[in-house]
Write a structure and sequence with these properties.
- The chain is mostly beta strands.
- The chain has no helices and 7 strands.
- The strands form 2 sheets. It has a 4-stranded antiparallel beta sheet, with no helix packed on it.
Length: 105
């Protein structure tokens, strides 16, 4: 899972935030915008990502910039999924499968 936030001036609002990752209704710990490996069993999954203020910033923990997608993981395969936070506040994020690597590739 790759998390991407805008890098230009308006994006300073992402400085004190982290992504929130939910797979099949289970929240996964994400501590930064760095790529995360998320092991899941083969089959269909529902992935949701949003943005929240980093713990300790004193900001309310309301989620924003959500994105959701259905993905299917093959037996032994790896999916590379990317979340892109929006450039402008109030917009939704974007979640897409970037590539898939089948078992043995």
């Amino acid at each position: 899972m790759t998390f991407t936030r805008p890098s230009w001036a308006v994006a300073r609002s992402y400085k004190d935030t982290v992504p929130v990752l939910v797979v099949d209704g289970v929240r996964r710990t994400v501590v930064s915008w760095a790529p995360e490996a998320v092991p899941v069993p083969a089959g269909p999954h529902r992935v949701r990502v949003a943005v929240v203020p980093r713990a300790g910033t004193g900001a309310p923990t309301k989620e924003y910039a959500p994105a959701e997608a259905a993905v299917t993981v093959g037996v032994g395969a790896q999916l590379y999924v990317e979340y892109r936070a929006p450039r402008m506040p109030g917009q939704d994020g974007r979640l897409r499968v970037v590539s898939a690597k089948a078992f043995g590739d």
